[in-house]
Structures are given as structure tokens and as C-alpha cells.
Amino acid sequence: MATLQKRKSRGHNYWSIVESRRVNGKPRPVILEYLGSAATLLERLKEGIPKKVHSYSHGLGAIMLDIAEELQVVPSINRQIKSKQLRNGFTVGGSLLLAAIGRVGKPTSKRGWYEGWARYTSLSYLLRMSLNKLDSQHFWDQMEAFPLAAIHQVEEDILKVLIEKEGITLDTLLYDTSNFFTYIDSNNQRCSLAQRGRNKQKRMDLRQFGLLLLVSRDQIPLFHQVYQGNLSDKGVFKDNLQKILARFKSIAGSLENITLIFDQGNNSKEILKDVDKNIHFIGALSPYQHKDLIKEANNNLNIISVNDYELECYRLRTRIWELDLTCVVYISEKLRKGQIKGLKQDIKKIFAKLRKLKEKIQQPTIEPLKEDAFDLDFWVDKKEFDLLNHKFGRRILITNQHDWSTKEIILAYWGQSKIESVFKRIKNPFHLALRPQYHWTDQKIEVHGFICLLALLLVMVASKRAREKVGFTGTPDVLLEKLSAIRLTTFIENPLQKTKGRYKTVYRLEEMDPDIQALAEGMGLSELKLKTKIPFSVYN
């Protein structure tokens, strides 16, 4: 409730409209409107007191807080903080959650969190706390207080609540890795995570760190690990396999009904043996390393229908690397076209180099041209090209799910496209971007990775809710834009009669388009909540 307060300065009385909010964890009056002296007030009363109106982006922050409250994100983090860590009245869990919501709304530096984004949202209204002190130093200190050893335990605690509350299925786990380039100085010896390696965005000139990610069929992140940028995919998979198995034994109780899906880049004889004896899996093999299997398949292809696609495939049960496996060889038209396109591009590049060489050979000289002088001619062997065209597009899938149908095996492997979409999403500069990270120590980079994956978790849960409650069919990015369009307006009412020093601050949702109105109602945003129950401060 807003109140009218008087303050004295140099013998004169001045009036302000204030509202009580928590600053550094303690109630403090926050000025909403300077009214001036009594003479100024009288003049304004004669003219009529104008309404001071502000409009804030509301829907995105409100739904993120609602999900975080349900998943007990802040208590899960705070339980891992041994000493009482407070800065500006905020607990470590509260600060990290706000940083995560900031990555959802507008990925920016910690310095730009408030001035560039939070001040234009309704977060201060929802928390009833002042946020203007949350600068880069605030977030750095809170990140420093979060022990790296606690990251996996916090993730596990949140996932247990998530599975119970949201009914997330763990029957299929999608595994993949990617890397992210940084601008960390080459001479920086304090950062071991950022190393030079084969960057997937072609920035081999920069240091990078890697990210291992495991998601459900709903693209909800279930496990992550930040690792050194110069490690191979096979090495990362081998080093983290037991951690992954332990995570899902803990939250699911058993691995019996879980199938792990990964691509051929993570395979080796040793790794596959370890996977096979612990969990069901679907993987892939390189056709170039198993030419006999491809040759056998080419002579025995059958046509099956998979999601309205007619696929040529061959299935057999055989022993590979001393393991009893079911193999499915099929022709992927998308892969074949991509390989042909790549071949044509390579031919084009080679021809360009050969033409330059031919021009040099044919350059005139002072000496007369001899009969046995060199010349250069080149062409494409159409017969060989057509043969490659016929051979391209083969995929080899392997699994120990012998009872699954061929269609089920192929569809499960196609689920890999979902985790590839997740990596594209966290490289999107508008929402959820892991870059820019603006950190150059290992501890900060790892905590930053946790914050970004927490942001992804909140968004994917929101997307799941929108699908189930509203029938929303758009992408998570479209959902975030629509949620951001739900705006909160606040203004000070013009009193129609004399008051006892109290001016009422009124909050209203702006009018919305019908589709956004339906989204707001379906996700419980049409009625304003006075305050979140998340313990951002020890005073909550």
C-alpha cells in the first residue's frame, strides 16, 4: 500500500508517495512519486493530479518464478551453502535463480542484468524487493559461494521434484555434446577448461569449452557436464558414463526401463561393452568401418513405412565387437542428399585449384614450346560418381533392445534431432544463450553453465505446460515472446475525495490479443499474484 510521507529540507517540507519494499533484506520506503512542496501540491491539485503509469513485461518472469517455486529450486541450492551467504539481502539460491531467469529473458552480461533487462520487468513487484543493487559484483560473489561439488546434487534434487510434479518420463535419454568458443586470452593460465580444439562453429583460432548434455524426449535437461575444450567425444562419454548411470539409478530407482541414445562419434569397443552391460541403448556405427555389413544389407533391402516415409532397410542380429546386437541398416535420403552436396562442393573446390594450376602451366614463355611440354586436363568420372550416389545415405544402427520393432528402433534414433535442437537453442543469441559467458575462471564458467541449464529447464517445463494446458504448438522461442507480451501496468490512482495520507497503487494487466489471453488464462497468469513464496531472502 502506498502512503504519503513528509520530509524536511532546509526548513521546507516536501511530500512524496512511498511504498514499503525490502532492500538488503530489510523493509525500506521506496519513493514512487515526488510531489514537491505544499505550494506545488496545491498547484497540481488545481490542475488535477496526473496518474503516473508504468508498464512492465510480466508473463515471462511470472511463469518462470511459478515453475521455480514448484520445483523448489532456491531451497535446493541454499541447502548446499554451508555458511550463511547473503548479499544485498539475497541468498545464493535466489541470486542464481534470478540470473537464470535473466538468461531466459535477455542473455546479457551480469552488469547489464538490471539496467538492460530486469528494470523493464515486473520482477521487483513479484518479489517485493529492490533489484537495482544486483550488479556484476553481486552475481560474482554469489556464484563464488556456490561449490562446484554441489551442482550435480542440486540438479538431482530438482529432477526428483520435477518427475513427481510434472510426470516427466525417463524411458528415453538423448545424449550429445557440443562446444562453445570464448575470447579468453591465450596466455591466461588460470583457466584449464578453455582449450583449443575442433570448434563446431569453425572458430579454431579461439579457446573453447565443451558441454555434455542429456535430455528427455520433452527436451528437458536431465544431466550436464562442462569439460575441457580439447577432449574427444569418446573420452568425455567414457569419463562420464558412470556418473550418468548413478544419476538415473538415484532418481528412477532402476535402469531396466531406460534406453540411452547416442551417435556414432561416441563409440568404441571398450565403451560399448561398458554401456551394454549396464543399460539398454541405441547407437550408430560408421559405414566405412563395417563395409561387409553394408554389402550384405545392399543385397537384402526391404521397404518399411516409418512416419509416412518409405525406407529401404535391412535388419539382422549379429555379433559386433564381441557383443550380441541387433543391427538395422537403412538408407536415409536426407543423409544421401547431404553427402552428394558435400561431394559436389569438394569437386568444385578441387576444380578451382586445378584451373589455377592449368593457367600457370599454359602461361607463355620466351622459349619456344616443346612438343613434350606439360598440359593439364581434368574431369569427373560419371560412372564412379553415379556409383557413389548409389552407395551414399547408409546408416547402421545398433541396439541391445532385441524385442523392439525396426520402426521403434529407427524412430528412437531419430529422437537425436531433439537434442541437436536444444544445442541450437542455447546458441540462439535472443533467448537461453550460453554465450556470452564473460567469465574466465573454471569455477565461474561451470556455475555459469549450471545457470544456463537451469534456465533451459524452466523454459522446457513451461513449454510442456503450454502444450498440455493450452494446446500450444509453437516453438519455445515463440512461447517466450508471447509470454513477454503479457504486460503489467502500475499507476497511482487520482483520489476523488480527501484521503488520510494514503494513495492507492493499482496494478492491472494490459489488454491482450485473443491468443495471448488464452495462453495467460491457461497458464494461470490472468490473475495477479501479490508475491512469490520463493525464499529469496532469509527474511521471507
How would you characterize this protein structure?
With 540 residues, the protein is of the alpha+beta class. Among the domains are: 1-50, no CATH class; 149-284 and 408-461, Nucleotidyltransferase, domain 5 (2-Layer Sandwich). Helices cover 41% and strands 22% of the residues. It has 18 helices and 17 strands. The chain has a nine-stranded mixed sheet with strand order 9-8-7-10-11-15-14-13-12, with helices on both faces. A three-stranded antiparallel sheet has the order 1-2-3. Strand 5 and strand 6 form a beta hairpin. The longest helix is centred in the middle third of the chain and has 29 residues, at 333-361.
Sequence-ordered SSE layout with sheet pairings:
Elements: E1 3-9, E2 12-23, E3 26-36, H1 38-47, E4 53-57, H2 59-71, H3 73-78, E5 86-87, E6 90-91, H4 92-105, H5 112-116, H6 123-127, H7 136-144, H8 151-166, E7 172-181, E8 208-215, E9 221-228, H9 233-252, E10 259-261, H10 269-276, E11 280-285, H11 291-298, E12 302-306, E13 309-320, E14 323-331, H12 333-361, H13 382-391, E15 394-399, H14 406-414, H15 416-425, H16 442-470, H17 476-484, E16 487-492, E17 505-509, H18 514-522
Parallel strand pairs: 7-10, 10-11
Antiparallel strand pairs: 1-2, 2-3, 4-16, 5-6, 7-8, 8-9, 11-15, 12-13, 13-14, 14-15, 16-17
Helix pairs in contact: 2-4, 2-16, 2-17, 4-7, 4-16
